[in-house]
Structures are given as structure tokens and as C-alpha cells.
Amino acid sequence: MSLVSEEFPDEVCISRHITIELILVSAQCTHTSWTINTADLSDCLTLACCQHLGSLSSVLQVPLRAEEITIPADVTPERVPTHIVDYSEAEQSDEQLYQEISKANVICIVYSVNNKKSIEKVTSHWIPLINDRTDKDSRVPLILVGNKSDLVEHSSMETILPIMNQYQDIETCVECSAKNLKNISELFYYAQKAVLHPTGPLYCPEEKELKPSCIKALTRIFKVSDLDNDGVLNDNELNFFQRTCFNTPLAPQALEDVKNVVRRNMTDGVKDNGLTLKGFLFLHTLFIQRGRHETTWTVLRRFGYDDDLELTQEYLFPMIKIPPDCTTELNHNAYLFLQSVFDKHDKDRDCALSPEEVKDLFKVFPYMPWGPDVNNTVCTNDQGWITYQGYLSQWTLTTYLDVQRSLEYLGYLGYSIIYEQESQAAAITVTRNKRIDLQKKQTQRSVFRCNVLGARGSGKSGFLQAFLGRNLQRQRRIREDHKSFYAISTTYVYGQEKYLLLHEVMPDFDFLSEADLACDVVCLVYDINSPRSFEYCAKVYKQYFIDSKTPCVVIAAKSDLHEVRQHYSLSPHEFCRKHKLHPPQPFTCNTTEAPNKDIYTRLTTMAMYPHMAQADLKNSTFWLRASVGATVFAVLGFAMYRALLKQR
User: Fold this and answer.
1) What pTM, to 2 d.p., does this model score?
2) What class of enzyme is it (predicted)?
3) Which of 86, 150, 199, 477 is most buried when burial is the number of CB atoms within 10 A of its CB?
């Protein structure tokens, strides 16, 4: 199926069973038998099924009710097995009818074209009965079947069309003849189509326009397909869209034909020789008006939508197994994809996303996923806008802390579609068990978590914000309700770029959860100017970390202030010496420029090499080797990114 082809697409061949409930509304429904000349529902059903099953034979009489029959998938246009159930008022009770209605995916109401009372009963009895037995928000599609067309020379359509306009649940009307098999195949094709490609969720026949939910879904599809975010689908983007949805490219002339159709019908559907959103929506309106619902449904389902035009749970949350003691990270292809999304929305090429650019980026989401706290979780520029590094850091944080949320976000952005993957789970790397890393004394992980603990007012928040390059003066401008308990950025260890994730743990000595304790390195922060600040650090260490293999570092915060004696049995230096910890590391964020970041490189190094925490890490030359080139690599990486932008 292409934008201009009339063939059936492979994509719409969904493996599902459909129950077609055929309801007899003939005024002659109490007859005990039927002959071929008075063909009604049962003979229509029997002959049609015989035809589909390849065993058509002469049927002289038919029973009041046909047995349940399944038409195999390989003999139907949509290649979907269809389970057909007949109903007879003469043989079955109302309760049996109600049960069948509740199970049906589509109901065919059969009337006789030569019987006026039969037609009247469609609206006086059958449609009200069915509507009373189905939920208003999930009505079963109806098909009106005018049988015995061989007995009359006129059509009943003039009588039926007002009924179709009155009831939105009616998908279509088909006149047929069981005697000469006229339109029998079409009847079952339309029944299948009413289930697989219903009109109701897409189009409002009274207004002759797409429904809001359909417009919303197609708008997201357009924005995902607009790879350069210029507001139009150029030929390359249209061809990519075509291959994605229909597995075949469009010839150049076919592309021009599509655009010419739009040009003839609207003035703003084509711009700069590309298809605008209005033109894209017009094409789908045209497909539906011409009865080609399957084209629009194929597109919608390829982009993850269900019958209610909601993204499916299977699409947003693909299965991914995460064994214990393993973490989740984005892989190389995921970072490339996210970089392309950033480039797509960084209109002014300043390597940062303004509030308007962030809003534009998340237009394909049903809600705004990032709040104001994100700006205090990652690096920003002087205007407070999220930088390229900060943008990737936030994605890294989300993937580490909540991989399901990351999968959901990648689904909204269309990762699996753009990168032609089975699902966005292909963007995730599940790291190996940390115990194996310890045994092998090496790791391939890129993200390391540091939990920051300390008494209230010890300087934990300042320590997190300093990692993002903010001195005390900048930190004071942060609103209380915009503060974050996380900070993440990159550091360089032996020339390797790694992410360090800092998590400020609330000071509750009596209860620290597993999440508070699960990390790669621990920071115990105390205020050198507060006499009781260190006591909390000492108690937490002795209670939770003294026998742990997790490296611990003591931070002497606010080192620019006067140091007072701590009200504890041991001084901080004595405590560290006794427990074979590094001496307290002085730290302050009360600086003129950005605070010094050497301590963060040390933390990352300890997280990467926990087995060396009590050995080589005591050697100052080790720190020098580990942190050498960190600034150079950071500057070089930023410069290379700017150079790439200029080339593009």
C-alpha cells in the first residue's frame, strides 16, 4: 500500500479472530425452511461460506439457523480468520442474542430489499436493541445487508442512506444476492474492514472532517517524520515515511502526483515542494472519504496506535529484562538518535535549548515530561537553558533511574521507527552484574552513582550544584520549589568520558532505604563551621557502611569558613584514619568562578575502581593520572560538537 496504490498492504494483515454476528431482520423469519428462490440470511450465509471454503455446491433448502463457521485466513483479502455466527428468532432466546452481541466485533443486520417492513425493523427494533446492549463508548460497528437483490430491479439505497446518516455506528451498506452470489465476498470483506479499519475513530461524516483524536495522532506522526523540523515533508522524508509504513518507496512521478492532488485541493498543502501538515491531514481525509481507511490505519498502527488512537502499552513499554545488581544505560545508537533530536530543535544553533525549543521538542508527547527541576539537575548556560551536555545527561539520568520511563519517552519520539528497530528496547544496554566487575577488577559501565549524605545544612545541595558549575551566588537564585535532589554531568577518568550521578539523600538516620544505600560511591558531607555536623556522618558510616565494599569519601564542606571543633569523640581526621578512609576533602562553592571539580573526578575514579580505594587511591600520583586531561577532553568535546554543527 502506498499513498497512491490500491493494493492491499501486508501491514494490515493482523493475526486476530473476528466474530461476525449476522442478525436476521426479515419479516419472514418464522418460516421453517427456505428455498433457493426465497434466499434469505441462512442461504446467504451457507452459500457464501461454501464459496469461501472452496466447496460450493447446490443448496436447495437451508435451515432456520446455520451452524457456526470459520472462514480461514488464507481465503480472505485481509488474511484474517473470520468466525461467523447466525441468529434466528424462531430457534433462539433473547438471552442468547444478548450473549452473541456482547461477543461480536461487528454485526451484520440483514434485511430483504423487497420487504418494506423488514427495512423498517432495522431502525424500529434492531439498532435500538443493539445500542441498548453495548457500551456507548465502545459501540460495535454495524453493516446493513440488503439481501434478495435478484428479486427486484430497483435499489433500496435511497431508503437506507438516511438511516446510515442517522446512525454513526453503521459502517456501510451492501446489497447482495445469495442466489447468484452477488456481492457476497464484498459483504465479508466490509465486515472485516469494519473491525480492522473502522471509520468511527477517524472521521466524522456529519462534519466531513477528521476527528480531533485522529488529527492529534497524525500530527505526532508528521512531526516524527519531519526529520529536519522545517514544517514540511520533503521528498526524502516522504520516501522514508513511505518505506516505513508500506515497505516500498515512491517513484519520483508518484511523489509529484501526490503533491499535485494536494495542490489542486488546497493552497497551503504544499510549501517549498514539500508536504505541509495541512496537506498531510488532507491526504488522509481524502483516503477515508474514498473508502481507503486501511491506508490511514496502516500508518497509525505502524506508529504504535491502537483502535482507540492511543499508543499501545506494547509500543511504549517493550519487554526488557534487568537482572539484580545490573543497571541500564543508553547505547551508542540511542545517543546518536538523541543528538539528532537535539539538532532538529536547536534552531539557533547555540548548543542549548531555549524554553520554546524544549516545548517544541516535546510536542510529540501527551504531557510535558521535564519540569523546572531539570534545569537544576543538569548543566545549563548563563541564561539557564539546558545545554547539549545537560540534555544528554538528563536522558542518561532517566534511563539509569527509571528505564521504563526512558522507553516511554523514546517511544513518543519514534526511536524504533526512525532507527528501524523492533522496539526502543534496542536503545538500552543492561550492564553486567556489579559483582562480576569487582571480580574482574574492571567495568564497561558509563554511569556511576554517588549518594550524598549529611546532616541538614551541611552543604549537600551546594555540593550537587557545584558539580554543574554553579557557585554559591548562582545557587542562591534557585527557587525552593525548583530544587532537585539529583545532579548529573560528565567527568573524565584516564581520558574516558563517564557520567557521575549525584543523589542527595534526605537526612534520616533511623531509616535509610535500599535505594539510599545502593550506589557505587558514598559522599559523607559535614559543615566544618557547625560543631555537630560531623556526628551524623560518623554514625551513618558506622551503621551502614563500615562493613560495606562501597567506597566512602568524607567531604569537609564550606571550607572557606572558620573550622570549629566537632562535638564527637574523634576529630574527622582521626575518624578517617581509624577507619582507613581518605582524609576529609576540603570543598567550597563560595567562589568567584565555577567551583573546582577535581573532587568529582576522584569520586568517579573510586566508583570505577572500588578495589583500589584502600590501595592506589592513597597515592597522590594516582589522582593525577586519573584526572589528567579532564578539562582538555571537556573543552575538546564541546569544540568538536560546535564544529560539527557548523559543517551541517
Assistant:
1) 0.83
2) hydrolase
3) 86
